[in-house]
Amino acid sequence: MEMENGIPVLRAVRIPVSDGERFLVRRCPFCGRQHIHGAAEGHRTPHCPIDKEPPGGYILREALPGGAHKQQALPGSGAEDLDP
Ligand SMILES: [Zn+2]
């Protein structure tokens, strides 16, 4: 998992809502749920169930269009990172 200063980084997508924008975490790696936060990057209190949340919280970063955060994906190896 991607980390920053020992804190896990979750990728979020920016979504429009009636009063602005939100960040959507499609599938949290800790609890498997979808989380919606305010549309700003940075350290957040987890929205996970209390028994699954990472103790230090997590950091939200906006996912880049086209999955540019997927680093070093080798051609033909793509079995492990199949984001819908
Ligand atoms: Zn979660």
Mind sketching the topology for me?
Layout (H helix, E strand, L loop, with lengths): L2 E2 L2 E11 L2 E6 L9 E4 L3 E3 L13 E5 L22
Parallel strand pairs: 2-6
Antiparallel strand pairs: 1-2, 2-3, 3-4, 5-6
This protein binds zinc ion.
Write structural notes for this entry.
There is one protein chain. With 84 residues, the chain is mainly β. Helices cover 0% and strands 37% of the residues. It has strands at 3-4, 7-17, 20-25, 35-38, 42-44, 58-62. Strands 1, 2, 3, 4, 5 and 6 form a 6-stranded mixed sheet that branches. It starts with a strand and ends in a 22-residue tail after the last strand. The model has no long low-confidence stretch (mean pLDDT 87). The structure holds zinc ion. Zinc ion (ZN) binds next to loops. Zinc ion binds next to loops.
Essential attributes:
binds zinc ion; mainly beta; 6-stranded mixed β-sheet; single chain; globular; 84 residues
The overall pLDDT, averaged over residues, is: 87
Radius of gyration: 14 Å
The chain-level structural class is mainly beta
N-to-C span: 18 Å
Q: Major sheet: size, sense and barrel closure?
A: 6 strands, mixed
| Secondary-structure element order, N to C | EEEEEE
Beta-strand portion reads 35-45%
What ligands can be seen in this structure?
zinc ion
When the domains are counted, the total is 1
